[in-house]
Amino acid sequence: MAKPYAKSKEMTELVSSTSWIDEALSSQDKMQDQAWSQPAYDTMGNINSEEQGSMDEEEEEEGDGEKPKRRGPKKKKMTKARMERFRARRVKANARERSRMHGLNDALENLRSVMPCYSRTQKLSKIETLRLARNYIWALSEVLESGQTTEGKGFIEMLCRGLSQPTSNLVAGCLQLNSPAMFFDKHEEKSMICESAIPSHTFNYQSPGLPSPPYGNVEAHILHLKPLTFKSLLNPSFVSHNPDCPTPPYEGPLTPPLSITGNFSLKQNGSPDLNKSYPFISQYPSVSLGEGHRHASHIHSMVPRYELPIDMTYESYSQHVVGSQITGIFNK
DNA sequence: TAGGCCATCTGGTCCT
DNA sequence: AGGACCAGATGGCCTA
């Protein structure tokens, strides 16, 4: 089952460290040195005559008089010098490729950080990040064009389209948790929460009969939604131990607000908004945008994208924010 | 143990 | 020639 990917400790340290590449390079060089120090074999598994004879000529006529002559450029034999050059090229190319992929991953991490549901410890997989990003853009477009609210099932449905069930749970859990009013406005929705017999710790965002992850029918995903159980959320062990915990405790500086122009703008000076002790913290402190962007900015700021402060559990959050509303329901 | 996800290596292709 | 990009192969890690 696809689960939000959590990097191992070593991997996290490796990525965050600046010295990883040197170490990786040196260790890989060592390994490759060992590999390359072995006698050179040709494609048939025979020891290369150049290695045996230690000739330094780079090109040599191939001495097989039996096989028919081949057209095209003659295949150069791998002399020692050519092998060394090839090895050096290969090592450099590998390093470049690693660097390129790290750049790609950095970009992906940036993308993750502006998703409506972000955690550094429990990351969306690459493919799910891209899918969620696509949905996010689409959902925001819908909000802008049709005036649809971001605080409703419709918004969550748009976000969850095509996502795997675990990711849908994650996103829905995040957004529902931070938009409690959404599910307490209507009587029937209260009933759904109270009546849903939900096993253990998972968000019951599943749709019975739905193809298992990864990517079942989109409509099935969103049309069979049930709200999460706040009961499970209120269990501290759920927050601290459960791998499905939607947003682990906030653990770092806020992610930069997304500029409407498509650039990521980062407030250089501490924003008063960031220093406030919110029960949960908006990711988008007010930014100065042009008149034309005002509406878009407003819409964007409405997107329920929050992370819990580090010292706040879901329980304390729920008690603090939802208060008697939830308590009353659970006491039934 | 299978499956998902990942990083890395590698060879091919295209471009400068 | 060398760099960027890509896709396939491989093996490690993690979880159900």
Q: Note the overall shape.
A: elongated
Taking the sheet with the most strands, its summary is:
2 strands, antiparallel
Evaluate the radius of gyration: 28 Å
Low-confidence stretches: 1-68, 180-332
| Quaternary organization | single chain
How many β strands by DSSP?
Answer: 2
Structural class: mainly alpha
Which percent band covers the strand fraction?
Answer: under 5%
Number of helices: 15
Folded structure, characterized:
By secondary structure, this protein is mainly alpha-helical. It has a domain at 81-175. It has 15 helices and two strands. A two-stranded antiparallel ribbon has the order 1-2. The protein is elongated, with a radius of gyration of 28 Å. It binds a DNA duplex (16 and 16 nucleotides) through helix 2 and helix 4. It is found in: Nucleus. Residues 53-64 have a biased composition (Acidic residues).
Short key terms for the protein model shown above:
mainly alpha, two-stranded antiparallel sheet, 50% helix, DNA-binding, bHLH_dom, HLH_DNA-bd_sf, transcription, E-box binding, TF_bHLH_NeuroD
Short description:
The chain contains 15 helices and two strands.
List the helices and strands and how they pair.
Layout: H1 9-16, H2 20-37, H3 49-53, H4 80-113, H5 126-146, H6 153-160, H7 165-178, H8 187-195, H9 218-223, H10 230-233, H11 236-241, H12 272-275, E1 281-282, H13 291-302, E2 306-307, H14 314-322, H15 324-330
Antiparallel strand pairs: 1-2
Helix pairs in contact: 2-4, 5-6, 6-7
The protein binds a DNA duplex (16 and 16 nucleotides) through residues 1-3, 5-8, 11, 24, 28, 32, 89-90, 92-94, 96-98, 100-102, 105, 125-127, 213-214, 243.
